[in-house]
Amino acid sequence: QLLATGVDINSRDAAGRTAVMAATHGNQVETVRVLIAAGADINLQDKRLDNPFLYAGAEGLLEILRLTIAAGADTKLTNRFGGTALIPAAERGPVAVVAELLNHTDVDVNHVNNLGWTALLEAIILGDGGPARTEVVRLLIAAGADVNLADSQGVTPLAHAQQRGYGAIIALLEAVGAK
Predict the structure, then answer these.
(1) With contact defined as beta carbons under 8 Å apart, do 84 and 107 qualify?
(2) How far is CA 114 from CA 50, 100, 119, 151, in A?
(3) What is the pLDDT of residues 55-97, one digit of tens each?
(4) Shortest CA distance to 160 belongs to which of 130, 121, 131, 133?
(5) Alpha helices of 26-179 — where are they, by DSSP H?
(6) Three-state helix/strand/coil letters over 17-31
(7) Dihedral sign, CA of 1, 65, 75, 128?
(8) Is the dihedral of CA 173, 120, 144, 60 positive or negative?
(9) How far apart are CA 77 and CA 99, in angstroms?
């Protein structure tokens, strides 16, 4: 009804959120779909530097992520940590979200955020080393992640995995020549 009255679809609240961003926060898939179809700008970032694509990737909102990808989300935009949607997804998102980003976008698998971490490093450093994070590491390696790209302190992904005792991840990294 509001759209029919001519309301500005990209107006913002005090936090800089647009309607499509607010709908994303609430995981309101159909509302996001309607707003995108009505011309909502999905690349506008709020004061935290989130937008629907970045937030959906970080929070594991697969359906909304797919909608934003189909709508042409700008995969080069970064969040408040200087990271792409892939970096927090690699740490905590469902494997399906990481796969979606790797298989259906041009997101840079080796992007380095402000902490000096890539998606591979974040999956290891902040992950739990369990089956889901191990599968994420496998997907990242398959997508071309540089297994020897160290963090800002010079610590490699393999060294981080060894420090944490993540045997399955260590095996994946060593199998592709990680040092």
Answers:
(1) yes
(2) 15, 24, 12, 10
(3) 999 999 999 999 999 999 999 999 999 999 999 999 998 999 9
(4) 121
(5) 29-37, 52-59, 62-70, 86-92, 95-104, 119-125, 131-142, 157-164, 167-175
(6) CCHHHHHHHCCCHHH
(7) positive
(8) positive
(9) 19
